Amino acid sequence: MMPRRSFFKTTALWLAATTAWRQGLSAQDPAFYPSVKPRKLVFPRDHGAHLDFRTEWWYLTGWLGEGSDVIGFQLTFFRSRTQHPDNNPSRFAPKQLLFAHAAVSLAKENRFLSASRSGRLNGTRFNVSELDTAIQLDDWSLEHLTHSAREMGSESEESEMYQGRFAGEGFALTFSASAQSKPLLRGNAGVSQKGPQSQHSSYYYSRAPLRVTAQVQLGQELQTQQIQQTKNSMSSEKSVQSLQGVAWLDHEWSSQLLMPGAVGWDWMGINLLNGGTLMAFQIRDAHSESLYAHVDARDRSGQPNHAWNGLRFKPGGHWRSKSLIEYPLPMNLELAGVTYRLVPLMLTQEVDARTSTGGFYWEGAVSLMKDEQLLGHGYLELTGYGGALNF
Q1: H/E element holding 264?
Q2: Are 342 and 330 in contact (CB under 8 A)?
Q3: CA-CA to 350 of 20 to 30 Å: which in 85, 134, 147, 158?
């Protein structure tokens, strides 16, 4: 059941954000939100927030450890620009909303722990930067750092790193993730179409693979950082695991993402064992038919790998969650008559987002297999199976 405090907080944010509709300003008004047009992405500026656009998210996933002790994790920050006019003088007007989801998947214990945060941007506890990735949502954070070769005492090129933290009931994770290559620009130089018409597009790039080191704390009594600081006796150094692994970060922003008739999407991002990456998505209708699909595979140097062109999603079964939503799990992939399997770390990786962005979706750690051969690890996202997404 939704916590009462979270329910009232989310309801208040939603009511405030939708007040502008009653003032006659349509969310579909093209004059209010900018459209996605071809342009050169410039970094580090485009690592930062794009406050004029309607929707934006930073999405980090990863695998930590190995064997039976492996841990999957995901952290997502969503920014949403409401319809409140910029000249509204009230400091209570929620012109920009910020939501976040985080989860860890514990394979050994078959446990899925998740948490969420929400608030409106206020420049202090809830803040994003337009200059680079620097997001603060209460005690959760994500930041992009660049160090020059001189600072690193090296003759190599500058070094890039992401660092951050998130915590929830029973878990806390602090991480640093170093970039191994330049940003992977999706679609046409960073403009990624989500339908046959160009207006259904987003700016989209990935950072993958990332080499990640994380300190993971687990325990029934472990809460957020503030509680932990006041009750240090609840956690001992033995409860802190220092783990290494591989991660993936997506950054995407748009004003009009889904085409008419679309209810959701299937997406995967896999770090291949050979150093390459594989990203694919499809936009679906209410009958789970694909309306639009795209595949983007890269070799270890970041160059396109066309060997995966033609890959398509094909459900290998169905699994019903506690929310009574039926998901196409396990999900398979087909290419030129060959079947590849996306094997979940566990089935119970459904995210309850009712207290933030609304509804349920499945987002979990998976392994890419060809017969019994392991090809890579990553994440699979299945949205819109419990009802159409509403941005």
Answers
A1: strand 262-272
A2: yes
A3: 134
Q: Which residues contact 353 (CB under 8 A, 6 or more apart)?
A: 101, 116, 359, 360, 361
How far is 289 from 75, CA to CA, in rounded Å?
29
Q: What angle do CA 30, 189, 298 make, to 5 degrees?
A: 135
**CB-based contacts of 378, cutoff 8 Å, min separation 6:** 61, 63, 248, 268, 269, 270, 271, 278, 365, 366, 368
Q: Based on the number of CB atoms within 10 Å of its own CB, is 388 exposed (0-12), middle (13-18) or buried (19 or more)? A: middle
CB 52 within 8 A of CB 389: no
Query: Are 368 and 342 a contacting pair, CB within 8 Å?
Result: yes
Give the chain's length.
391
> Which string of DSSP letters, residue by residue, matches 221-258?
T---HHHHHH-GGG--GGGEEEEEEEEEEEEEEES--S
Residue 229 has pLDDT above 60, yes or no: no
CA 184/CA 205 separation, integer angstroms: 5
- State the residue for tokens 């950082």: 225
Measured at the CA of 302, the angle between CA 378 and CA 46, to 5 degrees, comes to 85
335: burial class by Cβ within 10 Å (0-12, 13-18, 19+)?
Answer: middle
Q: Give the per-residue pLDDT at 87.
A: 64
Do 354 and 348 meet the contact criterion of CB atoms below 8 Å apart?
A: no
Q: Which amino acid is at 370?
A: K
Residue 125: alpha-carbon gap to chain centroid: 21
Domains defined for the chain, CATH in brackets: 43-382 (2.40.370.10)
Residue listed under structure tokens 């790998």? 305
Q: Determine contact, residues 168/3, Cβ cutoff 8 Å.
A: no
